[in-house]
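Subgroup meeting minutes
Present: P.N., E.W., G.H.
Scribe: E.W.

1. P.N. recapped why we're keeping a running log of single-chain structure predictions: easier to compare across weeks, and new members can see raw inputs and outputs side by side.
2. G.H. added today's entry (108 aa).
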Amino acid sequence: MVETLLRDGSTTVPALTSALPITRQAVAKHLATLDDAGLVERSRAGRQVSYRLREGALRPAAAWLHETEVAWDRRLGRLKDVVERRAGRTVGEPDEVAATLPEEGAGE
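Output recorded in log:
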């Protein structure tokens, strides 16, 4: 639903219902939850209610995800170093399994 709101900008419950494999009631409940969280804003034109994501509403979540990714990359890198040392390899030396894997970005 968030992807649809990002792509389409302002949209209505019927438009979301037709774009997603969930019921109108489920769309309305999801939108209510997003509204309660401050992630969407509503506007009314006559009887039609439109929803759109609030500008910058997902930035805190994106920043947290990035920080978490960086922290886990560091932790996993240290774990890999410990495992390689215990296995008797020099840190950073490719192992047999890694040598058989395609390089990142290859085949794209």
